């Protein structure tokens, strides 16, 4: 697939450690600090090419939006996630700025 999937919304570093090897994760500044302070080696848990599935039938954008909006929780959680990512992005930018 051309779609990139990112792991997100982690609550504990154990969740992140279980996905070690995943190319793209969004990790909050607090959990990054906790991971940096942890001791021991982080071993790969995932490897590319392990599982493949049949490509689903294509749908139009209108069909996608209709299906997505049938699940109020999906709509609300997506909006909440975007807001929280924006807050974390500012925190990360500030942390990086302080390191420079």
UniProtKB/TrEMBL annotation:
<dbReference type="GO" id="GO:0005829">
    <property type="term" value="C:cytosol"/>
</dbReference>
<dbReference type="Pfam" id="PF00923">
    <property type="entry name" value="TAL_FSA"/>
</dbReference>
<dbReference type="InterPro" id="IPR013785">
    <property type="entry name" value="Aldolase_TIM"/>
</dbReference>
<dbReference type="GO" id="GO:0005975">
    <property type="term" value="P:carbohydrate metabolic process"/>
</dbReference>
<protein>
    <submittedName>
        <fullName>Transaldolase</fullName>
        <ecNumber>2.2.1.2</ecNumber>
    </submittedName>
</protein>
<keyword id="KW-0704">Schiff base</keyword>
<keyword id="KW-0808">Transferase</keyword>
<dbReference type="InterPro" id="IPR001585">
    <property type="entry name" value="TAL/FSA"/>
</dbReference>
<dbReference type="GO" id="GO:0004801">
    <property type="term" value="F:transaldolase activity"/>
</dbReference>
